[in-house]
Amino acid sequence: MSSTIYLKTSEEIELIRKACALTSLTLGEIAKWVKPGVTTQKIDTIAREFILDNGGRPACLGYGGFPASVCMEVNEIVVHGFPSNYALREGDIIGTDLVVELNGMNGDMCYTFPVGEISDELYNLCRTTKESLFVGIEACKEGNRIGDISNAVQRYCQSRGYTVVQEMCGHGIGRDMHEAPEIPNYGRRSTGPMIRNGMTLCIEPMINLGSRHIVIERDGWTCRTRDRKASAHYEHTVAVVDGKAEILTSFEPVYQVLQDRFI
Ligand code: MF3
Ligand code: CO
User: Fold this and answer.
1) Helical pair 120-138 and 146-158, crossing angle rounded to 10 deg
2) Are 114 and 105 within 8 A, CB to CB?
3) Ligand 1: residue whose CA is nearest its atom 10
4) Is the CB of 60 under 6 A from ligand 1?
5) Does residue 73's CB lie within 6 angstroms of at least one atom of ligand 1?
6) Ligand 1 centroid vs 63 CA: distance in angstroms?
7) Which is nearest to 108 in space by CA: 248, 253, 257?
8) Rounded to a whole number, what is the distance in angstroms from the first to the last CA of the chain?
9) CB–CB of 2/179 below 8 Å?
10) Residue 170 forms beta bridges with which residues?
11) Total Cβ atoms within 10 A of residue 132
12) 63-121: per-residue pLDDT in tens?
């Protein structure tokens, strides 16, 4: 990844906003299919067709050889899981992480869903991880540095007894799905690049129930917890405008589908 941080013009931010709108709608389509008995392969197909029907491109598909449009993160999978013939089961959690390119710009987001009724332990993991995303977004403002986002996420999660994955991080986004800077979910305050207007960033806490350690499976992609305890992951794309983070992706389409079952 180039270390250059591209500051976007307001026109470019408008384009990224449109890509993010389609990403968010796609996540809403995915939400309709997250239920016991549905395979992750089916969910991937639904998402891919929806993106293509709306003039977008599923940017994960073929990226570095990734074989699918959506990363499937069932239970102990942290990130970058492949869709398969695994049928979701009551009590699972599943993160679906997707990137949509539209008119040359990318939007990236992730939501971890409950499958039917889930345990309090998993609900609380997801709830805290999602809250930490918004805590990180609050810290994403002019005058702060990237390490302030990292530190805010880390403190929020660790103080509640969870652990933070260190090997995977958030990132800049734009014409490329991964641009500088890297945004770790742990770190020290007042370190790293200054946050500036025009930055477009993906903030994405990946938080574990057990130990922080991960393993990459032999497929070279699937990242799971070493102890096989659950991991949760939420992600938004934001733009720094007028000194603060404006969230460009939206969970609203998901909430409309989940209604009172949302996390
Ligand atoms: N949001 C994921 C990430 O930033 C998207 C990965 S797409 C893949 O890593 F193709 F790399 F899997
Ligand atoms: Co991302």
Assistant:
1) 160
2) no
3) 60
4) yes
5) no
6) 8
7) 248
8) 34
9) yes
10) 183
11) 26
12) 999 999 999 999 999 999 999 999 999 999 999 999 999 999 999 999 999 999 999 99
The predicted model scores a pTM of: 0.98
One-letter amino acid for residue 40 of the chain = T
Ligand 1 pocket, residue 165 CB under 6 Å: no
Question: Which of the four pLDDT bands, split at 50, 70 and 90, describes residue 2?
Answer: confident
Residue 36 CA to residue 180 CA, distance in Å, equals 38
Determine the distance separating the centroid of ligand 2 and the alpha carbon of 99, expressed in angstroms. 8
**Beta-strand relationship, 200-203 and 170-172:** antiparallel
Name the band, by pLDDT with cuts 50, 70 and 90, for residue 51: very high
CA of 107 to the centre of ligand 2 (A): 9
The atom number, within ligand 1, closest to the CA of 202 reads 4
Reported as a single tens digit per residue, the pLDDT across 185-235 is 999 999 999 999 999 999 999 999 999 999 999 999 999 999 999 999 999
**Do residues 171 and 217 make contact, with C-beta atoms less than 8 angstroms apart?**
no
Our answer on whether the CB atom of 183 is closer than 6 Å to any ligand 1 atom is: no
Contact of 227 with 84, CB cutoff 8 Å: no
Query: Which tokens belong to 236?
Result: 């938004």
Residue 191 has which token pair? 């370190």
